[in-house]
Each structure stands twice: as structure tokens, then as C-alpha cells.
């Protein structure tokens, strides 16, 4: 298999190969740039370098996607193998000292996790790991297992029961649901009847296509609330709560977020008269980083701070 170019251009580095790997996953320069936290012009420049090095276009625009050429498909497994070996070598020989480390950890959380977990986590890091950086990554949760495998995400936190094999998990806490309305809502109090609840307007957080267990809550609301009373659908819990704060619509969100936002905003916490399922929140990571000292450390921090929390 001829995958090594015969010309004598300067060697590629880890970043070049990572760009290639992410492009193979995302098939989009825009999405790959967002994943890698670089500008689109910078990523296009790296792609141009890859094309020159391998003497092949590698990715061809077809409709709205960048489809790999036969050469790119041929390169995919060798590149992934090189990246995996490099990461293993780095983690096997690099000690991790949180007090001096400048490592950046990429975490995938839904917005409720960002609001609930990041403030106390950042306060902890400021005392014990002042140079460690945390980045909350937005991604297509349908491809979360591939992002964990590739190392784009270090750990994911939430409820993703359909993740592929090779992903490890550690339960953290059991999440319950509550509803919020604006303070002084003219008809809904803290404990409404089922009839009063379903007759009100609702803003729903949609989890369709994300693989998140919140989808079961969304489906239960759809089964009980008349369609005409679902006035809005939004992709995040915080946006639903903000809409409720400024309208008469009811938002159903995780209880941890409801309690936190009610303290900071003029929101009423409402006990839902429907039997919403409980959701098990866990942290997820790939087998490949299971023994990585830095990944072990951040997982232990999350476990110690949030494990077995009951809300």
C-alpha cells in the first residue's frame, strides 16, 4: 500500500493528522473547524498542506459535504493508528501534576451540566490546578462515541445509554425533573393539578436526534399536553427557562437547573403532576484513555465533587 509520499516536503505534525482525522468524521470544514477550535481559513490552509503532501485532493465537495477520495479512505486507518500510538506514548511517559499542569480538558455537557457543574469545578481548579483549562465542547451527540474515541472529547457527562462499545461509564447522580414558571404566574402555583398543568402553554426542550435520555421526558409531555399548547421548542434547558421567565409558558427542566436558576432569577419551581422518569447522569470516557494519568485525575475530581449527589 503506497501511502507514504516520495517527495521531500517537510514532515506533517500531530495537528495535521488530527485535522485529517476530524475531517473524516465530520465531512465538513465548518464542523471540523468548530471541533478543533480553529478558524475555517486556518483549517483550509492545513487541508491544502495535506493535499500537497499526499498529492491528492483527499476531500471533494459533493453537495453540502466533503466526501473522501479513495486515497483518503486508504489513509484513514493508518492515520488513526499513528494518532492513537502518539497519544498512548504521550500518556505513558508524561507524569501529570495538577498543580503545575497546563493541560486543557475538553468536556461534553448539555447546558444544564454547564450551569450546574462548571462553576464549582472551576472554583476547585483555581485552588488545586490553577493552570488547567476546561473547555465545554458542543458537538453532535449522535457521533459522541467517535469523538470520545478520537480524543476530541476527554469525557462526556450526561445520560447517553446508546453509546457504542469501548466507552466506559461511571454513574454520578440520579436526576429528577421539575418545572419552572415566571414568578407570580396568574394561574399556576407550586403544586398544580394535572388538568391545570396540561391546559397551560408549554415550551419544550427537544432531544430528538441527540441520543440523550431526556427524549423520554419530551415524549411524555407530548403524550399529555395538547399539541396546540406546545407553543415553542428549543434545543437547550436554559433557553426554555428564560422563555418561561418572560412569558406564561411552563418549562420542564432538570431539577438541579430549576433550583439553581430559581435562586438567581424570578422563577417559581413547580412540582409536575406527571410521573416523569428519573435519569441517571454518568461520566463517559473511551478505553483508550482509561489509564491516562490526566484523564484519570479529571474523572476523579468529577466523581468526588458530583458523585452520588441526590437532588
What does this structure look like?
Keywords: DNA-binding, Transcription, Transcription regulation. It comes from Paraburkholderia terrae. Residues 12-69 form the HTH lysR-type domain. Belongs to the LysR transcriptional regulatory family. It holds the Pfam family LysR_substrate. This protein has 311 residues and is an alpha/beta fold. It has three domains: 14-93, Arc Repressor Mutant, subunit A (Orthogonal Bundle), CATH 1.10.10.10; 104-173 and 280-310, Periplasmic binding protein-like II (D-Maltodextrin-Binding Protein, domain 2, 3-Layer(aba) Sandwich); 177-277, D-Maltodextrin-Binding Protein, domain 2. It has helices at 14-26, 29-36, 40-54, 70-93, 111-128, 144-150, 194-199, 215-224, 237-245, 255-264, 293-306; strands spanning 59-62, 65-68, 104-109, 133-136, 155-158, 167-175, 177-182, 202-205, 230-234, 250-254, 267-270, 279-286, 309-310. A six-stranded mixed sheet has the order 4-3-5-12-6-13. A hairpin with a 2-residue loop joins strand 1 (59-62) and strand 2. Helix 1 (14-26) packs across helix 3 and helix 1 packs across helix 4 (70-93). The longest helix is centred in the first third of the chain and has 24 residues, at 70-93. The radius of gyration is 23 Å and the shape is globular. Mean pLDDT is 88; it is low at 4-8.
What fold name goes in the CATH topology slot of the largest domain? D-Maltodextrin-Binding Protein, domain 2
> How would a crystallographer describe the biggest sheet?
6 strands, mixed
The CATH architecture of the largest domain is 3-Layer(aba) Sandwich
Report the structural category: alpha/beta
User: Unreliable segments (pLDDT under 50, ≥5 consecutive)?
Assistant: 4-8
Order of helices and strands: HHHEEHEHEHEEEHEHEHEHEEHE
Amino acid at each position: 500500500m503506497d501511502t507514504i509520499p516520495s517527495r521531500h516536503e517537510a514532515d506533517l505534525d500531530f495537528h495535521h493528522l488530527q485535522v485529517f482525522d476530524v475531517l473524516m468524521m465530520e465531512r465538513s470544514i465548518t464542523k471540523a473547524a468548530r471541533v478543533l477550535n480553529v478558524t475555517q481559513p486556518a483549517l483550509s490552509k492545513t487541508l491544502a498542506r495535506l493535499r500537497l503532501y499526499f498529492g491528492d485532493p483527499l476531500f471533494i465537495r459533493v453537495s453540502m459535504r466533503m466526501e473522501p477520495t479513495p486515497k483518503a479512505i486508504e489513509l484513514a486507518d493508518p492515520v488513526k493508528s499513528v494518532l492513537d500510538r502518539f497519544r498512548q506514548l504521550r500518556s505513558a511517559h508524561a507524569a501529570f501534576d495538577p498543580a503545575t499542569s497546563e493541560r486543557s480538558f475538553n468536556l461534553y455537557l448539555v447546558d444544564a451540566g454547564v450551569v450546574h457543574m462548571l462553576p464549582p469545578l472551576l472554583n476547585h481548579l483555581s485552588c488545586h490546578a490553577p493552570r488547567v483549562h476546561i473547555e465545554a465542547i458542543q458537538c453532535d451527540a449522535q457521533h459522541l462515541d467517535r469523538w470520545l474515541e478520537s480524543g476530541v472529547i476527554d469525557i462526556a457527562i450526561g445520560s447517553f445509554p446508546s453509546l457504542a462499545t469501548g466507552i466506559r461509564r461511571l454513574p454520578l447522580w440520579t436526576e429528577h425533573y421539575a418545572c419552572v414558571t415566571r414568578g407570580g404566574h396568574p394561574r399556576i402555583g407550586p403544586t398544580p393539578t394535572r388538568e391545570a398543568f396540561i391546559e397551560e402553554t408549554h415550551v419544550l426542550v427537544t432531544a430528538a436526534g441527540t441520543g440523550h435520555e431526556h427524549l423520554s421526558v419530551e415524549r411524555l409531555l407530548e403524550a399529555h399536553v395538547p399539541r396546540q399548547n406546545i407553543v415553542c421548542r428549543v434545543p437547550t434547558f436554559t433557553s426554555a427557562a428564560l422563555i418561561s421567565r418572560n412569558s406564561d409558558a411552563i418549562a420542564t427542566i432538570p431539577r438541579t437547573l430549576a433550583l439553581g436558576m430559581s435562586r438567581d432569577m424570578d422563577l417559581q419551581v413547580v412540582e409536575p403532576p406527571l410521573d416523569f422518569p428519573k435519569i441517571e447522569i454518568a461520566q463517559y470516557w473511551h478505553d483508550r484513555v482509561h489509564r491516562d494519568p490526566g484523564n484519570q485525575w479529571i474523572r476523579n475530581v468529577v466523581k468526588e465533587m458530583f458523585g452520588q449527589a441526590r437532588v
